[in-house]
Amino acid sequence: MARNLEFEVVLYPGPILRKVSDPVAHFDEELRATVGAMFARMRKSKGVGLAAPQVGLQQRILVLNPSEDEKNDLVLVNPTIVARAGERVVFDEGCLSFPGIYAEITRPDRCTVRAYDLSGELTEREYAGFTSRIIQHEYDHLEGVLLVDRMTPAEKLKHKSALEELVTRYKRARPAEVAAQAAEREGARKE
Questions:
Q1: Residue 27: beta bridge partners?
Q2: 88: domain range?
Q3: Active site residues
Q4: Number of domains in the chain
Q5: Which tens digits make up the pLDDT trace of 63-103?
Q6: For residue range 94-131, what is the model confidence (pLDDT) as tens digits?
Q7: Domain CATH number, residue 142
Q8: DSSP character for 67?
């Protein structure tokens, strides 16, 4: 029986956000519970998409809904973007892992995605417009690519203090973890 899950959003610079996610191996009740809890967190946070690393899971799962109608819920498990096409469009993107920060990001208008659904059936479909943008943004999370990585130098400068504040809050909340990471980096430099 699947457990009752509740997730919190991992904020930048949480280390899991920089990791490439692992494929999902089992299409079972636990996966369905995870996806249900991801949708609940996405809605509670007033987002339109969420990737598993954003809730602390290093798995290739993304959920999205470009509208408020639950019939438009979309789950992509082990997705691969096999093509990107169309006009390159600039759009003001936000991210639940970067609260309050919005940046003009350029992405192709369309993408073709090969992914599994919740029952493990492989599908391939082209998405366009806002849905395509959400997929590309959430897919970046599965690859360890973040909103800040897509920002222009001008956008990074514009958001410099907000980004620094997120880093400061992270360090204050996790002093032991930050110290261990610093020691690990120091050890790697000596090798």
A1: none
A2: 15-151
A3: 138
A4: 1
A5: 999 998 999 999 999 999 999 999 999 999 999 999 999 99
A6: 999 999 999 999 999 999 999 999 999 999 999 999 99
A7: 3.90.45.10
A8: S
pTM: 0.91
| CA R_g for the chain | 17
Long-range CB pairs of 157-164 (<8 Å, 24+ gap) are 158/103, 159/101, 159/103, 162/98, 162/100, 162/101, 163/12, 163/98, 163/101
Residues 6+ apart with CB under 8 A from 156: 148, 163
In a domain, 136, yes or no: yes
DSSP 3-state helix, strand, coil percentages of the chain (rounded to 5)?
Answer: 40, 25, 30
Residue whose pair of structure tokens reads 């130098």 in the numeric block? 153
Q: Is 130 exposed, middle or buried (0-12, 13-18, 19+ CB in 10 A)?
A: middle
Token pair 């996790």 in the structure block, residue = 174
With respect to residue 35, please indicate whether it lies within any of the assigned structural domains: yes
Q: Count other C-beta atoms under 10 Å from residue 119's C-beta.
A: 9
Q: How far apart are CA 149 and CA 132, in angstroms?
A: 19
Q: What is the DSSP string of 20-48?
A: PPBPP---SHHHHHHHHHHHHHHHHTT-S
Q: Classify residue 176: in a domain, yes or no.
A: no
> Do residues 84 and 106 make contact, with C-beta atoms less than 8 angstroms apart?
no
> 72: exposed, middle or buried (C-beta count within 10 Å: 0-12, 13-18, 19+)?
exposed
